Amino acid sequence: MKCYLTSCFVGFIILDEDFNLMDYELFPKRDLIKRQIEVSSGNLTREEEAILKRNVKNCDSIIIETNLNISNYNNLKGASKFKFETPSDGGKFLRSNMGLILKETGFIDSEDDLNQVLHSVSLELTNYKLKEASKARDMFLIQAINAIDEIDEATGKLIERIREWHVLNFPELDKIKNNEKYVKLIAEYGDRNTIIENELLDEIKISIQSTGTEMEGPDLEVLQGFAGSVKSLQDTKKSLTDYVDQKMSEIAPNLSNLIGSSLGAKLIAHIGGIEKLALLPSSTIQIMGAEKALFRHKKTGERPPKHGLIYQHPEIRSARWWLKGKIARALAAKISIAVRKDVYSGELDPVLKENFEKKLESIKKEHPFPPRPSKSKEDKKKDKGKKKKKKREKYKKKVKDYY
Questions:
Q1: Which domain holds residue 343?
Q2: What are 317-367's pLDDT values in tens digits?
Q3: 61-64 vs 21-26, strand pairing mode
Q4: Which residues in 70-201 belong to E strands, given as ranges?
Q5: In terms of domains, do 14 and 119 share one?
Q6: Do 237 and 316 fall within a single domain?
Q7: Which residues lie in Basic residues bias regions (predicted)?
Q8: Which residues 6+ apart lie within 8 Å of 190 measured at CB?
Q9: Long-range contacts of range 268-274, CB-CB < 8 Å, 24 or more positions apart?
Q10: What CATH number should be reported for the domain holding residue 272?
């Protein structure tokens, strides 16, 4: 006799060939969430083992609907009778008639109770997963590095506004290219007369002969307050940067040592966690962040991207054009190793960075000049045509000479 083993959120159920309920093994009600986590993590539960052990003698074959690895069932008694099918006919019947079958098992009193039970179990499971996710150490790191990016974007626009505003009062001060120093001067000293009186011009080396208009009273107060707000954002960014450095040295010391805290944190934030990053191959890490270019390559056949986020590494950004791809490939390979060491050992290995530096030097020595441009198909056709023409002319000369 053939039977079906299938499961749902309350436990495991065996149906016969005609989809009648043969046997069941339900999870304890107080451990429903715990068992669901156990099943989703790929482990064989004691309830599934028990129901298989009870029914393997009565069935000629048991069709098991499961997402687990088949090797989990190899050591069970009567494993030769097991067949695996996902989804199976028994599973489809259970999902279509879940209220009726759970009522037969006694888990619910009536079919109308099913939706209420499903709702409460789903809520508990979601809350549990949220709590577990928030315990991950890299979640705080991801939030911090995303906050730094947003502050950078916001302060860039605000500083541009301050420069356009303050240039009416003191246009010569716009020669200062350092945004932090510029905002600090306006936030702390205000108008040009105060800056000149505090003898700050010698330090910044600009002329005191200003052509700007006077700014006094509420006009100056509003601008100074605006600059003070931007300055506080810049201070917040500094404290966040220190926090990211500290967290990266704790969570990913090898990655931080290899490419720096900021770039390492951006890679982790882009993929959503350090464990996910550790599972990626180096080829994916190399182009991570260049998804638009990758899909454009697949759609239109343009050249594929050679680097994504790791382009921010100074060795790639400052390299010559024919070395960028080679250095990106070498760096991505080292990043892949560094992240795996961080996740699975957590110990700093300085040899990793030394190996990358040696690889970098060898790439620069092996490729001191750009590669020669390869001939296109049209050029090759022209070359072939020229060779054929030369052969024909040579043959004609021989015939003339002969006669």
A1: 251-365
A2: 999 999 999 999 999 999 999 999 998 888 889 999 999 999 999 999 998
A3: unpaired
A4: 82-84
A5: yes
A6: no
A7: 383-403
A8: 220, 223, 224
A9: 268/138, 268/141, 268/142, 268/145, 269/141, 269/142, 269/145, 269/146, 270/309, 272/142, 273/136, 273/138, 273/139, 273/142, 274/138, 274/339, 274/342, 274/343
A10: 1.10.246.90
